[in-house]
Amino acid sequence: MNHIAPGARAGIYHYDEIDRQFVAERVEQFRKQVERRLSGELTEEEFKPVRLMNGLYLQLHAYMLRIAVPYGVMSATQLRKLAEIGRRYDRGYGHFTTRQNLQYNWIKLEDTPAILHELAEVDMHALQTSGNCVRNVTTDPFVGAARDEVVDGRVYAEILRQWTTMHPEFTYLPRKFKIAISGAESDRAAVRIHDVGLLARRNDKGEAGFSFYVGGGLGRSPFVGKLVREWVAEEDFVAYLEAILRVYNQYGRRDNIYKARIKILVHELGLEKFTQEVEEEFARLRGPKYRLDPEIVEGVRQHFAPPPFEEPPDHSEALERAKASDPAFANWLAVNVAEHKAPGYAIATISLKPAGGIPGDATCDQMDLVADLAERHSFGELRVTHVQNLVLAHVKKDELYDLWKQLDAAELGSANAGLIGDIIACPGLDYCALANARSIPLAQAISARFADPVRQRTIGELGIKISGCINACGHHHVGAIGILGVDKKGTEYYQITVGGDPTLTTEIGDILGPAVTETEAVDAIEAIVDVYLANRTGEGERFIDTLRRVGHAPFKERIYAAD
Amino acid sequence: MPLIENGRIGEDAWSFIPDGEPVPNDRPVIISFERWQAERDSFEGRNARLGVRLKSGTLAGAIAADLDRFSLVALEFPKFRDGRGFSTARELRERYGYTGEIRAVGHVIPDQYLFLVRTGFTSVEAPEGTNPDSWANALKEITIAFQPSLDDTAPLSLLRRKLKVG
């Protein structure tokens, strides 16, 4: 096989021969599994989980193939390959997901072995992006760059990637299992809405360790992850996770798909009993076989060595001039650019949310452009965020203006990261076999209504999240404004929640009132914003804080009073 | 039903005796865990080998104290998607030190065979008409395992290769 080595400049895990051999064997295994299905040796029931563990879903109109982007980090070479595949086998675009992966929505079953083969050429695959196994581990999209970073989450996410790959004991779990790691002071990975959320931190000796939150999740019964252990030392990292998974595999419910996630087990056993079970298992597992040797961690860490930063002055004259001369750029800079740990560098978020656009979609031409820009401005590396945007993590401040102009020319320059236009939406009834209502047209209508970047910035931090059904792939429960699509006798309605929060102060939003139609929903969002602006104290008070202070009443009154 | 052992169809010396039917004393038999609980005294002094069959909801701890009485533990998979047996087998081996035969019975597919072996199973009862090639192939098609298990006890297994980096 012809391997194209990813650029060796940035912090990207490089496959070795063992990783490559594994993926090649796994691709061949899937080819045989498809043959065995076609010959009838495997029933459809037996084939389904096998297919799902290869990332292949059967959706409303076509197959959907979900490609793994481990912890959301990839090289420009890999992104170019994704563009090429999207052009050849899909309809010229791809969709970035809340799990930091990419999915193609219009795939033919017979093309999948060829696609998997092409992916393997750039050390990519679709493994364990679905099915009742441990899924792709996600982390902070600013990892390795953020000024507030304490521990580099990629190192541990990569250890888990290997650890959970075809785990013999945990591949037929009661239900899917999602892990997120954050190693910074701000949680940009929404760790407490995951089955296991890990906060990596350091003790006063500077050693790395982890707080384990277990049993978070959205869907039909939303729960915030509970703290099971405050401090798990680095050497026990794998053992503790193994203990949690074993308890879950043995005691998790298998009688009802809606009660099979670990959140229900933690809820039903109670935190104390659950913790006791895990601790017992952990006490026994702990030992040389599971000890994570610091030298292994160091070995993995070398893959993520910082790129060769030059040492530009932290204050960039070029940037200041551009800022003063171009207000649109200045706005983007204020909204989409974050502080970098290296002086003279910055972290740039590329919004995939143009006004009226489909959240998370990128055309193949856009992907090619971002790949070029990543090579030119960010050491050939980029990230996918759980809010469905892209990030160039290491951009010289001197080059930000040049970068933005190129992005803007390709409709990738929206200044709305974290603002009301930065909507998360699931694929909804346009694609998904589970959905009750469409999500995308509503997201488009809302972002068109709030298209003005100045208005967006005036409103400030306000996340809207839309799910087309109770499974909550659009994270509506933790949206400052959440929208859930429901079906009422064949008509799509939308239920609005407010007050959700995906960060460490995690909150599940409350339902504001009866569900409304699509047109009413856009007006209702605008009404909520108006009430907020009328009530907030000064420019600084965020929507969520105003809401906490004044309560639901003024919002309800405005939306439902006319009825 | 065909018995799969070491990637091949093998001879099955065992037979399962349904609850209520008389238990022969002269050949190896498997009884249900429920029968064992109800009639355990009746097996005192038995010379022929005895096996016990556990439903998927019966975990390793339930049989731990009696393991020295059994030459075989059969773990039931009511549906192949019900993966509790993987943990039960592992607990039998690693927590309770069981060294006898562990057999997978019920609904298991060749695609799970490698996982079964790696978690401590020694044999699988396959459905009639199963394709033996699929079972043989299942042990050969994936040669990389990233984590330690029953077949590889080196600490953290393949992650150790990372020590060589740099």
TrEMBL record, chain A:
**What keywords appear on the UniProt entry?**
4Fe-4S, Heme, Iron, Iron-sulfur, Metal-binding, Oxidoreductase
Residue ranges annotated for the Nitrite/Sulfite reductase ferredoxin-like domain, each copy included? 63-122, 359-409
Identify the residues that the record assigns to the Nitrite/sulphite reductase 4Fe-4S domain, covering every copy: 130-283, 423-559
Q: Does the keyword 4Fe-4S apply?
A: yes
Note one Pfam family from the annotation. NIR_SIR_ferr
Q: Which InterPro entries match?
A: NIR_SIR_4Fe-4S (IPR051329), NiRdtase/SiRdtase_haem-b_fer (IPR005117), Nit/Sulf_reduc_fer-like_dom_sf (IPR036136), NO2/SO3_Rdtase_4Fe4S_dom (IPR006067), NO2/SO3_Rdtase_4Fe4S_sf (IPR045854)
This protein's name: Nitrite/sulfite reductase
From TrEMBL, chain B:
InterPro entries recorded: UCP030820
- Top-level taxon: Bacteria
> Which Pfam family, an example, fits this chain?
DUF934
Can you say what this protein is called? DUF934 domain-containing protein
Q: Which organism is this entry from?
A: Azospirillum melinis
